[in-house]
Amino acid sequence: MMRVLSVASECAPFVKTGGLADVVGALPRALTAERVEMRTLLPGYPAVIAALGSDAAQIAELDDLFGGTARLIAGHAAGLDLIAIDAPHLYARTSGLYSDAHGHDWPDNPERFAALSWAAAHIATLGAGGWHPQVLHGHDWQAGFMVEYLHRMGNEDTRSVLTIHNIAFHGIAGAERLHALRLDPSRFHSAGYEYWGNISALKAGLIGADALTTVSSRYAEELMTPEFGLGLDGVMRSRREDLTGILNGIDSEVWNPATDPAITPYSTARGKAANKAALRAEFGLPEASGPLCIIVSRMTHQKGLDLVLEALPALLDHGGQLALLGSGERGLEHAFTSLAEHQPNVGVRIGYDEALSHRMMAGGDAILVPSRFEPCGLTQLYGLRYGTLPLVALTGGLADTVINASPAALARGVATGLQFAPVTAEALRNALTTLCRLHADPSVWAKMQRNAMAQPVGWDQSARAYAQLYERLIAGP
C-alpha cells in the first residue's frame, strides 16, 4: 500500500465552505481500491475535534506551533482516517473557518495555515504514531508551505503534490512575517515564494511541489493564460511538464437518487415528479409550464449570479421558475431576495443547507452554473447524477463534464445539458430560451435526462490517475 497524507483546510462532512471539502472527503475512500492508504490532516476546528471524540489518540506534541503548544491527535470518523492539529490558540473559533462573524479574514490566517503545512512536514519527517507518509498531497494555498518546511527539516525524501482547486486565492502575507512564518529568507525572491513584494503561500507550493495537479484538463490549460492564471500564469507555464488535469468526481454513495434519504428516491427521471412537487411547495412556487431551474452556489461575481439577474426574464417569460440556495455578497443576496418578494416564480433561501441541496437536485429540472471561471465544479456533476440538466458556462471543468445540446449532439442523442459562451448576460439569456424550448419537447428532454443520469461522475478514473501519479513520484526519476 502506498502511504499518502492529504493536507487540507476543510473536509466534508466535518467542515465545509465549498467543493474543496467534498473532494477532500471523498478522495481517500476512492483511493482504497487503488491500494493507497490516505490519511487526512486537518486543522483542529471545534467540529473536527468533536468528530474525533474521546477515542482520539495523541500521536505527537508540538511545543511551539506558531504561538502556542499543540497536539496531533488521530482517529477514525465518517469512514476517514484523520489527524487533527489540536491547537486552540489557532483554531478554537466559533465563526467561520477563514473569517470572523463580520466576514473579515482572521488576521493570523498566515500563521494558522502555516501551522497546517508545518504539521504535515513534521509528520513526514518524524512520523505519526509510527506511520510515515511517502507522499504529501496538499490542497490550495493553505498547504503551500509544506515543501518549504520539508527542506527546513532536512527531509528530501518525501514526495509532494499540490492540487490547485482555485488559483484566485494566493495566501498573501506581508514580507515582515518572514521570520514569524519560519521561512528561509534566501528564497524570498521572484524565482521563489516572493510575489510583488509579499509572501505567497500558493506560489511557494507551485514552485516547490514535485508535481502539480488541478481539477480539470481545461482548467490546467486555462491556468497558463493571463486571463485565468491571475498573476501566476508565468509560474504555471514554467511548470507545464509537471502539471496534470485530473477531473474531480463525486461521492456516488452520498449522491445517489436511488438511496438518498433526503428525497423521495428514484432510479429513472420519471421518479423526479414527486420531488419536483415537494420542492415547489417548499419554496412556495406555483404550478408552471416551464422548467424549474435551481441554483446552489456561493453568491459571488465569480459564480456569475449577477448575469442570472439580467437574463432571468428569458426563463420567466417562457413559464420557467427559479429556486436558489446560497449566500455570499450582500448585494447579490439583497437583489435575489427582493426579486423573490415581487416575483411569484422565484424562491430564495439565503444560507447553506446540505439536506435542502439534495432536495433541490432531486426536484429541479435544470441547474444553472454560469460561472465566469470554474476549475471543476461539483454541482453540475450532482445535477447529472440526479437527472437535473446542467446549463453551464463554457469554462474549466464545466466544459469538460457537460455535453452541449448542439444540433449534432441532439441528432446523435448524446447531449446531457447546455453550454453557453461568451460568459455574458446575453449569451445566458439565449441559453435559457433554448433550455425552455428543449423542455417543451418531452421526448428530447427525457432522452437528455437519461443521458445525464448515465454519465460516469464518480471517482474511479480520477482515483486511478492520482494513484498512478503517486506511484511515479515514489519510484523517482
Q: What labels describe this entry?
A:
Rossmann fold, six-stranded parallel sheet, 477 residues, nine-stranded mixed sheet, globular
Give a quick precis of the structure.
The protein has about 475 residues and is an alpha/beta fold. The chain is built from 20 helices and 18 strands.
How many domains would you count in the coordinates? 2
**What structural class should be given to the helix and strand makeup?**
alpha/beta
CATH C-level label of the largest domain: Alpha Beta
DSSP strand tally: 18
Low-confidence stretches: none
Write the layout of secondary structure elements.
Elements: E1 2-7, H1 19-32, E2 36-43, H2 46-52, E3 57-62, E4 70-77, E5 80-86, H3 88-91, H4 109-126, E6 135-139, H5 146-152, E7 159-164, E8 172-174, E9 194-195, E10 198-200, H6 201-208, E11 211-214, H7 217-222, H8 226-229, H9 233-238, E12 243-245, H10 272-283, E13 292-299, H11 305-311, H12 313-316, E14 321-328, H13 330-342, E15 346-350, H14 354-363, E16 366-369, H15 379-385, E17 389-393, H16 396-401, H17 407-412, E18 418-420, H18 425-439, H19 442-454, H20 460-475
Parallel strand pairs: 1-2, 1-6, 2-5, 6-7, 7-11, 11-12, 13-14, 13-16, 14-15, 16-17, 17-18
Antiparallel strand pairs: 3-4, 4-5, 8-10, 9-10
Helix pairs in contact: 4-5, 10-14, 11-18
